[in-house]
Amino acid sequence: MTYQACRGDFVVRLDGSTCLQLWNKEGRVVRREGDPLEVAQWLQACHDAGIEVRVQVNESVTP
Fold first, then answer.
1. pTM for the full predicted model
2. Domains of the chain: which residue ranges?
3. What are the entry keywords (predicted)?
């Protein structure tokens, strides 16, 4: 699967689980579940690729 992301969010949910939310320009989101270290590595890869990155508590349904 190919996905063109314009932003990546490191999400810490209220239950303590983590994921990476990848947003595209149309506002669609894909979530990749992982442990905190794994998600941090994905977020760093996004940053290194020049993609905007953020950290947030809980998931979001709007960009």
1. 0.84
2. 7-57
3. Plasmid
